[in-house]
Amino acid sequence: MSTALVQYTAAAVSDRGRKRPSNEDAFGYSVEHGVFLVCDGMGGAAAGEIASSLAVDETMRLLAAEVVGAPTPEQAEKAICAANLAIYARSQRNPKLAGMGTTLVALIAGERQVWILNVGDSRGYRLRNGKLDQITQDHSLVEEQVRMGRMNRSEAQRSPLRNVITRALGTQGQVTADIFALEAEPGDLYLLCSDGLTRELSDPLIESLLRLELPLDELCARLVGAANKAGGHDNITCLLVKAG
Ligand code: CA
User: Fold this and answer.
1) How far is the CA of 234 from the centre of ligand 1 (A)?
2) Which of 60, 63, 168, 179 fits 71 for a cystine, CB–CB 3.0-4.6 Å?
3) What's the whole-model pTM score?
């Protein structure tokens, strides 16, 4: 077994897509601290943008700006709860922002382990040895129906309820993130993305693009380009983290 510590590189692209007037997605990362985030906001007027950028700013402040070295998964869970409260409090103070919320998918990269945390339907994937696996489970009404065997995947994709998410940051005073712990191996490639990517591109197509072994910024551009070519119905964000 190798004792070398895993090191990380990253790149991200966020794009408005071809149909939406604004971009309510947000991302943030610090390679130095091993913190990577994608958020997809929702709410009327500018509320979605406010929710997603508040989530990124608050989480990055607590996990990068004010922490020395890499945060623990417990610190990440606490930061997500604090970000949730910050958004919720802001929406309580301003009626125009009532009900705003955001998804969040975060990757915390340690020297030998990686943790992925999620709330909502933004996803975390891992490409290992050319094979793509979805790590997170969507907190959405249709995904829960699929998991309970009440709906199949193609029904879920066509359902008028496919946009309904069952967990979000900021819509209630409390939130619980799912957390997935993974061993880090050199060569692993992680993708964090909003549903604007995964609604347009199938997992096999995402896998085939990620296998191209291009620079990370070029891979992000290819993913976003392919999602726009497929329709670009929603904002598209992808963040890639490579373990080397
Ligand atoms: Ca979206």
Assistant:
1) 6
2) 63
3) 0.96
**CA–centroid distance for 221 within its chain:** 17
Amino acid at 167: R
Q: How many residues does the chain have?
A: 244
183 CA from centroid of ligand 1 (Å): 29
29: three-class secondary structure by DSSP: strand
Q: How high is the mean pLDDT in each 10-residue block of the chain (244 residues)?
A: 76 98 97 96 92 98 87 96 97 94 97 96 98 97 93 90 94 97 96 97 98 96 98 98 96
What are the structure tokens assigned to 162, written together? 């496919």
Task: Specify the 3-state DSSP secondary structure of 30.
Answer: strand
- Distance from Cα 112 to the centre of ligand 1, integer Å: 32
233's tokens: 């119905």
Predicted pLDDT of residue 3:
55
State in Å: Cα 194 to ligand 1 middle. Answer: 6
> Could you give the CA distance from residue 121 to residue 166 in angstroms, rounded to a whole number?
9
Residues with CB under 5 Å of ion ligand 1 are 40, 194-196, 234
Q: How far apart are CA 123 and CA 114, in angstroms?
A: 15
- Measure the CA dihedral 166/58/42/74, to 10°: -10
CB within 8 Å of 13: residues ≥ 6 apart: 217, 220, 221, 223, 224, 236, 237, 238
